[in-house]
Amino acid sequence: MEVDFTTLFDEWSANYDATVFGEDEQYREVFERYEEILDFVAERAFGKIVEFGVGTGNLSVRLQQSGQLLVGIEPSQEMRAIAERKMPSLTIQDGHFLNYELSEQVDSIVSTYAFHHLTDEEKERAIYKFARNLRPGGKVIFADTMFVADEAFAKTIERAEQRGYDRLSADLKSEFYPTIPVLQVLFEKGGFTTRFTQMNHYVWVVEATKGE
Ligand SMILES: C[S@@+](CC[C@H](N)C(=O)[O-])C[C@H]1O[C@@H](n2cnc3c(N)ncnc32)[C@H](O)[C@@H]1O
């Protein structure tokens, strides 16, 4: 990984669930409709499923209920420990979007709030690898912060700064949030067709289907 966020998430793990359920004012809008976003992703996943960036396991719990979640992949040891406590029977691999092992091809690759940890060049490599790991007709379903264009991204940073949200604006400036047109091109180069759905001011779901 060009930038390794593992220490940040090890440190955030104990308070992470409080943040996603609205206790951190700076991140409240980012996690607005959090449970609906997880449900939206879980409802669209089918067949054998792999999840990246499991975190504290809030999406995995939903996926495990249908019995189709094959493996979760998560680089932070502290996040893995919390998710494993919630789901003792789930296999969670120490890995990340560019480093993981699958025993077979799958139907769905899912993730929430994690793909932006890769640079656009890394996203492209990850997408080519997803294409190899998916069966024909398989899907990548990712919810994450993204923006319709650079101008909308810049305005959101400005808005965070005006509100005094220093941690949020530093995060927006230092992580690798994509624009939708860039992400669309990356998926199309990998042989996918895409559909984007807006969930809140920050988060969109990309549903990318691999050609038959
Ligand atoms: C904001 S949390 C999201 C957790 C969970 N998916 C959710 O929706 O609540 C981001 C997670 O992605 C993980 N992560 C960071 N970089 C990653 C990478 N390159 N590949 C996979 N996961 C990564 C972090 O350790 C963290 O657990």
UniProtKB/TrEMBL annotation:
Positions annotated to bind S-adenosyl-L-methionine = 53, 74
What keywords does the record list, in alphabetical order?
A: Methyltransferase, S-adenosyl-L-methionine, Transferase
Q: Where is the Methyltransferase domain?
A: 49-138
Enzyme Commission number, as recorded: 2.1.1.-
Enzyme class, UniProt record, top EC level: transferase
Q: Where are the transmembrane segments?
A: none
Is Lipid biosynthesis there in the keyword field? no
One example GO MF annotation? S-adenosylmethionine-dependent methyltransferase activity
GO biological process terms on file: methylation
Purpose of the protein: Could be a S-adenosyl-L-methionine-dependent methyltransferase.
What PANTHER family does the record point to? TRANS-ACONITATE 2-METHYLTRANSFERASE-RELATED (PTHR43861)
- Which family does this protein fall into? Belongs to the methyltransferase superfamily. YrrT family.
- The name under which this protein is listed is Uncharacterized methyltransferase IRY55_07050
